[in-house]
Write a structure and sequence with these properties.
CATH topology of the domain at 60-86 and 250-424: Elongation Factor Tu (Ef-tu), domain 3
Oligomer: single chain
Largest sheet: 6 strands, antiparallel, barrel
Order of helices and strands: HEEEEEHHEEEEEEEEEEEEE
Number of strands: 18
CATH architecture of the domain at 60-86 and 250-424: Beta Barrel
Length: 424
């Protein structure tokens, strides 16, 4: 067997380093490439594991509150009404006759004593003179009859004396007494006729003097039915020839519901507005509460109303009779009271208290019972349970817990409910 030839590799000689680097560089580049490929595989090929996020804090609960404040508050009774004349006079004809002249028109201002209407009386001069002549004749006849009466009385006195002395007959005595009685009756009849004639003459004479209709006081002509040529009757009442009214003061007649009338009394303060002057207020005090139902109310199932009257000054004559009014009667008033909008109130419990949610110092809503006094459509007086500056919850999500702090709330400031009414 031929001996196998063994080849021994020898290290490169010191003079050949460039051949070693020639083989080493490609191998190193291949290794780097393989490492990059493996890294990309591990990065993109392996499935990702999600990282759990930290839980977000719950959003703050937003609620609406109102602030308890101090202010004036009034409790009022509302009603509708009409302006009416306060002082007026309806003037008729003082005598029977025919209107000859009319000196005024509706809307004219007149002074007391001014001539308004002149009437030509039906009484003639001949009638007046005839009555006067008849009166003179009656007076002359009375004088004659009085003389006969005096003679008859003297005769009867003489016959009475003779009768006592038995010096005359019974027939003569009775005859003298009868004559005296007849003379007395004639005298009385003439006197009665004279009185009747004097009365007729006086009436005719007064009628001729009172042919004028004059203003009884200073005011304004608000109605006029008289016209020249119109026949009128003495003391005619309906229709009146002319109406004079003092417009410097008017009466407000307000129709108040029966449920509100017990809250009113004489002297109750009242104010009103009228559509003709928006934003203007007039005021007065109740003069009278008419104790019978207003016309057309309380019948056939209708609500019952009562007329409440009060006066208002009208020196500038801006108000006119017949204007409609919206009236407010002040039945209770509190000054510098603790007040709260009625929007914050619910229904009272059996004790008359209201349960409200109040924000404490940590802005947690806490339940509190509150006592309420007078109230109106917008505000209520707090008698106990609240202090000014506290926040009362009026709107809160139902799902929110009572111990959950609230975010900055949308506060609604309480508004002073009293409007200071100034008469104009």
């Amino acid at each position: 067997m031929e001996a196998e030839q063994i080849k021994v590799a020898h290290a490169p000689a010191p003079g050949a380093p460039h051949r070693y680097r020639q083989y080493l560089a490609p191998a190193f580049a291949l290794s780097v490439a393989l490492a990059l490929v493996a890294g990309l595989y591990l990065r993109n090929g392996r499935p990702r594991v999600p990282v759990a996020a930290a839980p977000a804090p719950p959003p703050p609960v937003k609620i609406k509150t109102v602030e308890v404040q101090r202010g004036d508050i009034e409790q009022t009774v509302l009603a509708s009404g009409k302006l009416q004349l306060f002082r007026y006079a309806d003037l008729g004809a003082p005598i029977s006759g025919e209107i000859s002249d009319v000196f005024v028109a509706v809307g004219d201002g007149v002074k007391a004593g001014k001539l308004l209407i002149k009437i030509a009386p039906n009484v003639s001069v001949a009638r007046l003179e005839g009555n006067q002549a008849q009166l003179a004749g009656l007076r002359a006849g009375l004088a004659e009859q009085q003389a006969q009466l005096d003679f008859a009385q003297l005769q009867f006195k003489r016959q009475t004396q003779l009768k006592t002395d038995h010096a005359t007959s019974d027939e003569s005595f009775e005859s003298s007494r009868a004559a005296m009685t007849a003379a007395t009756a004639r005298v009385e009849a003439i006197k009665a006729h004279i009185l009747e004639t004097e009365s007729a003459t006086r009436d005719d004479d007064e009628a001729r003097k009172h042919t004028e209709v004059t203003a009884p006081f200073s005011g304004t002509v608000v109605a006029l039915t008289a016209r020249p040529g119109q026949a009128v009757t003495a003391h005619q009442q309906a229709p009146a020839l002319v109406r004079i009214a003092d417009l410097s003061k008017l009466t407000v007649q307000a129709r108040v519901a029966e449920i509100d009338v017990p809250h009113l009394h004489k002297g109750t303060s009242a104010s009103f507005t009228t559509p003709g002057y928006p934003g203007k207020y007039w005021s007065g005090k109740v003069r009278q509460i008419v104790p019978v139902p207003a016309d057309g109310s309380g019948e056939q199932g209708r609500d019952t109303f009562y007329n409440v009257l009060f006066e208002v000054g009208n020196a500038n004559l801006r108000l006119m009779s017949g204007m409609s009014t919206q009236v407010s009667f002040v039945v209770a008033h509190a000054h510098d009271a603790i007040i709260l909008p009625v929007a914050a109130l619910g229904k009272p419990d059996s004790d008359g208290l209201y349960s409200l949610k109040i924000l404490d110092a940590s802005r947690h809503p806490q339940l509190r019972r509150v006592r309420i006094g007078i109230r109106n459509q917008h505000q209520a007086q707090v008698l106990a349970g609240l202090t000014p500056g506290e926040q009362v919850v009026i709107d809160m999500p139902a799902a929110s817990a009572s111990n959950t702090p609230v975010a900055a709330s949308h506060r609604i400031a309480a508004v002073n409910p009293v409007t200071h009414l100034t008469p104009h």
